[in-house]
Amino acid sequence: MDLIFRKATKADVFFIVQMLADDPLGQKREAFATPLPKKYYTAFEYISADTNQELMVVENEVQAIIGTLQLTFIPYLTYQGGVRAQIEAVRIHKDFRGKGLGKQFFKWAINRAKERGAHVLQLTSDKKRPDAIRFYEKLGFKGSHEGMKLHFNN
After folding, report:
1. Strand pairing partners for 6?
2. Domain 4-138 bears CATH identifier 3.40.190.10
3. Would you list the DSSP string of 84-125?
4. Least C-beta-crowded within 10 Å: which of 32, 35, 131, 152?
5. How far is the C-alpha of 128 from the C-alpha of 118, rounded, in Å?
6. Strand-pair category, 83-92 with 120-123
7. What is the domain partition of the chain in residue ranges?
8. 103 contacts 67 by C-beta, under 8 angstroms
């Protein structure tokens, strides 16, 4: 299958949020509805304006969006002023899972992080997603750190 990797547009936001909400964890944290709540479009504008953010979609040969991810490039002083790439919100549309598309999307993301001068590409995955964790490990990601979060009630 020929894939097209491109930056998301405002017109893609509805489909991206639909994919983000299409699993048990996503259903709990997303507010997918028609029309889509304005806060998603506001977030999209903020992401689009930031040169260190790349919200990406992948399309198949008929230009249907079949996946999404967000790359964030974090410049920092450690590693001699290095750049860390963070990958988040990875989804492949449910009708296209298990066909090797996620692997191709990650290959693209790894190459993109290298192009932007990152010395590391990191991600987090909810411990309730064991299949995703196994997928990332097969791609060479290693559980090298213990991640922690502090959630706020906003």
Report:
1. 57
2. no
3. EEEEEEEEE-GGGTTSSHHHHHHHHHHHHHHHTT-SEEEE--
4. 152
5. 28
6. parallel
7. 4-138
8. no
pLDDT at 48: 97
> At 26, which helix (H) or strand (E)?
helix 24-29
Task: Profile the chain (154 residues) by mean pLDDT over runs of 10 residues.
Answer: 93 96 90 96 98 96 92 96 96 92 94 97 92 93 90 82
Cα 31 to Cα 35: distance, rounded to the nearest angstrom: 10
Q: Which of 121, 62, 114, 118 is nearest to 90 (CA)?
A: 121
Q: How many CB atoms lie within 10 A of CB 4?
A: 12
Q: Per this entry, what is the length of the chain?
A: 154
